[in-house]
Amino acid sequence: MTELRAVATDLDGTIVHRGTPPSPRTVDGFRRLHDHGLTLVIVTARPPRALADVVGVLEHHGHVICANGALVYDLATESIVQDRSLPPAVALEVVRRLRAEIPDLAFAIENASGYHREPQYRSEWPDDANTTVAAAEDLVAAPVAKLLARHPGLGHDEIVEITQRALGDLAVHHASGAAGLFELSAPGVSKGLALEALTADLGIDRSAVVAFGDMPNDIPMLAWAGIGVAVADAHPDVLAIADEVTASCVDDGVAQWIEHRFP
Predict the structure, then answer these.
(1) In whole angstroms, what is the distance from residue 245 CA to residue 234 CA?
(2) For the whole model, what pTM was predicted?
């Protein structure tokens, strides 16, 4: 059996249940990894500003791949160390094409400076002191790590069909599970490619990486890693490609897997 050197895990639905911080059992599991000399990589759709509930409990160890792979955040320095954002001109074209398809879409963006939205965009994440509220065409004047668009009447399959038809290879769509939500990034951005690049920089081979996830946007990293593990309540598409299945998020499945491998 290959000696593991890195553990990569999604946050929401994998180690974080309904917005709560990682459980004490999960935190203890991550300490075990640190004590055994393994690298921990959090791989999430969240932007850096939404990591406050995990930075402290992870004790500033490891890296976080954010925005589905567009940004890499160093926990030790609390700074962005890699940025693969959509250029402004491309983001503007994406907005224009989607508006032509669905005129009443509401847009928001995540970038290195934070979260910015149109007046009609509503999210679970609150505005902060840096939030700009303006038309999407103005918001994309700076590079966009993740372009968000909401329409409550659309399901996942409709969103995929619309983005493929309207955008082609202009941007990529990531499915993280929220109904009526488009999450769009630069071509080539994915959790899997970002994890591959980061571990290469650290001199870690894919065979020495285990990855955990629950939703379709986790599939690229589970498929790339030496061991891809789905939690028991993962999306069917994730369960179908996983090498292994552990217990559910609410039952601390990732922590259980770590405890079994590192007793």
Answers:
(1) 9
(2) 0.83
